[in-house]
Amino acid sequence: MTEPVIPSLIAQRFRSFLPVVIDVECGGFNAQTDAILEIAAVILRIDDDMRLVRDTTHFYRVVPFPGANLEEAALKFTGINPHHPLRIAHPEKDVFRDMFGHIRTRMKLEGCKRAILVGHNAHFDHGFVRAAAERHSLKRNPFHPFSSLDTVAMAALCLGQTVLSRACVAAGLGFDPEAAHSARYDAEKTADLFCYMINRWQELGGWPLTAADDNLVDTPDAGTVE
User: Fold this and answer.
1) Active-site residue, 181 included
2) CA-based torsion, 86, 72, 124, 126: positive or negative
3) Distance CA 96, CA 129 (A)
4) Core-most of 100, 151, 175, 224, by most CB within 10 Å?
C-alpha cells in the first residue's frame, strides 16, 4: 500500500510532473539508427526564494550500441571521438538504467507522478531517449511518452530568439561557444534558460506559487528500474 505524500512546489507548478532537462549528443539525426555518444540530465528544484533553479546534473559518455550508425559530419560538428582511448564511456543500457533510476528516485521524493522532458528542440532529444528505452526494453521509462517542454518555442515567445546561444545571451546568461556541443554544458545552459523564463513569468504574476499542505496525491513506489 502506498503512502499519500504532500506534493512539492515543483509538483504543484508542473501538474505533478518533474521537469528534467535533457541534452543528447549523437552520431546523426535518426534516433533509431544513430549512436548516442553523450547524454546529460539536469534535475531542477524550487529554492527557498520560490525560484526554479538547477539542482543535480547526471552526465554520461555512451558506448555506441552494436551496429549504430556514426555520421562523419555529426562527429565533426560535436567534436566527439567515440573511439578515443582515454574516453571513459559506458554501455547505453547501463547509462539509461542509471539515469532513469536517479530520476525516479527524485520523482518519488517530490511527489511527482511522472517526469517531463525539457529540451532545446525537445522532440529531438525525446526521440533518442524513447529509442534507447525501447532498444533495451526498459519498461520503467519515467518520462511522459509524448509530452515535452520545448525551450525553442518558449524562447521565441519570451526573448525573440530560437538558437540556444542567442537566447541565453538575450536573457543575460552568457554562452561559451567553445564549450558548446557537450551534453553537460548544453543541458545546463538549457536548464538555466528554462528556469529564467519560468521565473520571469512568475515575477510578472503568471503563476503564483503557494505551499499547499492539504493537496495529497498517491505516489507509486519508484521500485527498481528494469
Assistant:
1) yes
2) negative
3) 8
4) 151
Query: Residue type at 80?
Result: I
Region label for 68, one of left (φ > 0), alpha (ψ between -120 and 50) or beta (otherwise): beta
Q: Please state the pTM of the whole predicted model.
A: 0.89
Q: pLDDT by residue (tens digit) across 127-182?
A: 999 999 999 999 999 999 999 999 999 999 999 999 999 999 999 999 999 999 99
CA separation for the pair 64, 47 (Å, rounded): 37
pLDDT category, 223, cuts 50, 70, 90? very low
Angle, vertex CA 9, rays to CA 4 and CA 14, nearest 5 = 95
- Residue in 102, 136, 144, 181 annotated catalytic: 181
Which residues contact residue 164 at a Cβ distance below 8 angstroms, ignoring those fewer than 6 apart?
A: 120, 151, 175, 180, 186, 189, 190, 193
